[in-house]
Write a structure and sequence with these properties.
282 residues, alpha+beta, 6-stranded mixed β-barrel, 9 strands, 43% helix
Length: 282
Amino acid sequence: MKLCGETLLFLNAAIDTGLLVCSARLCGEQLRWRRMILAGVLGGAYAVAAVLPGGDFLRHGLVKASMAAAICLVAFGASARYFRLTAVYCAMGCLFAGLVLAFTQLTGTGLLQLPGGGFYPVSAMALLSIGALCLAIVRLMFAGSIQHTARSYETLELRLGENMVSLRALIDTGNTLKDPMTNEPVLVLDWSAATRLLPESHLQEQDFLYPAALMRRLMREYPDLRARLVPYRAVGVSQGLLLAVRCERKGKNGKIAPALAAFSPTPVSGDGAYEALTGGAA
């Protein structure tokens, strides 16, 4: 039973870690290996505890759902993308379990009975193949909605006065917006980021539809604010203006550098996967 417990722990930890990595890849999330391995070990420990004497309550559906939520919380942390990642992780787990069951039925491997449950003895090579098939199926089905990898994103930290925000930004090579006066690359932020950089202004989405009026208002409220209007073109917009402010950006080396950030009156991401575009603003 000791060997069986150790095998069950290792097997489930490896599977959970693999599912978490695949889920992160599919959602374009940054891979945090230590957190994912820790979450995988948590899943493995839960699998062992669920088959031990007295662990019947751990196999209840509500407990399983709570454990899946806890595993994803450890792996991904609490963020705006947590629920999406959890849903993808659960879907991946169901698909993987279904493929394993189908494999054992086709090959006649059989079911190893354990206290309160069962265990399908499947080789590591078979699990690896099933995992690859699982990933291929999901990528094929959701290829249209999963367009960016984890390397397509970066963490953007901006400071305006005493307020600092941390945003998830898409590295969009098609974003060539520049200040026509200085030829400086411009960061494009979701309008909601302005509510955190200027919390006392109580900004609303409709305020950004009239950037000139908003700039005059903000400069009255913040005399030291360095604001300007930046012209832009986009699909469906032949010529428009964005409100832009001078901020400070924290670089990867920890150094602070000036940056020009413009606020879009519409969300920069349709599904909320990111809040800013960096593009040429390296």
